[in-house]
Specification:
The chain is of the alpha+beta class. It folds into four domains: 55 residues, no CATH class; 82 residues; 84 residues, GMP Synthetase, Chain A, domain 3; 94 residues. Helix content is 34%, strand content 22%. The strands form five sheets. Strands 7-3-4-6-1-8 form a six-stranded antiparallel sheet, with no helix packed on it. Strands 9-10-11 form a three-stranded mixed sheet, with helices on one face. The chain has a three-stranded mixed sheet with strand order 14-13-16. A hairpin with a 2-residue loop joins strand 9 and strand 10. The model has no long low-confidence stretch (mean pLDDT 87).
Length: 357
Amino acid sequence: MAGAVLKTFDEIFQDEKDFFLANTSLANDFNKGSVVRTTLEAVATVIEDFFFRNFRIFRGELTAQIFDSFDFAKQGSLPAVGNVEFTTPAPATANIDIPQGTLLTSAQGIQYATTTAGIILIGNTTSGNVPVQAVLEGIVGNAAIGEVNGLIQNVPGISSVTNNAAIAGGQDEESDQDVKARFILFIQGLARTTPAGIKSGAKEIEGVVSASVEETGDCEVTVFIDDGSGTPPQSLVDEVQVHLDANNKAAGVTIFVFASTLLTIVIDTTMTFEGFITGQDLIDEQTIVRNAMINYINGLDAGENVIFFDLIVNMKASTQNFITATFAAPTEFITCQDIEVSSGQVARTSSGDITIN
């Protein structure tokens, strides 16, 4: 079946003109500004808008109906999660309670809230790990070590707070391009015991951002998963294991699920921008490109190589002012080479891992 053909303004106008010439001899002035031409142009504008507006609606509805037929849905956004540690300037003379819902902030102004109550016991100066969650969902809540360091709400006896590990797992709502790619993987994996099916099955679990599948021996399959942090919790690994054993394991085949090993990509780069950009404008441009680098690397699947060319393409696409970049680290980028990532690793980076000169 032929695809839908959408006529442009010029094509619609020409059709109208041809109809007039074929059916009447009373109207033959089609010069710019004539009454006939102006009228036909107005009609052509309305028809063109109608064509494109309804085509977009039709395409969206058709896609939604296809997804619904397979009980397949776009993944929503998720908040970043992690732990912080509260500190008091001297050993506590009494237990210091840290309420659930205590609001914190990062150096970038992103807010976080404790999800359980914490405590500094008498005689201690630190609370140990207290779970937190970003107030806003999305990748904006992902934070490098030490970035969550501000108290919005005063807690008596507490002098400081910090995160000793990255706060991660924040995901934006799945883009149309990403959901299409995942749907293709889903279709390929309808035979659920194939590598594609096992990978798709792992990604069905909420919180799994990436997965890699490796046939490690006769009747053995190893799956590595990541939640966006590079250090997914064992509870998530166990949930994926149970799900795959119930839905994706063929008779006689053993599936092993492991957390991916974090491969931190540390980058040192000097960038060139169009024109004479200085001060805050330069900082803003550098931040835009830095975020593009983070989004590309942190969007890679477990076991997926960091492709130098793809990174540069994402940097260039982030701002029209970016010209080029040279690298002092990592070693591979100095010579424009890719970073190879094993099936058990996942490449990740953060703002604290990227130095821009």
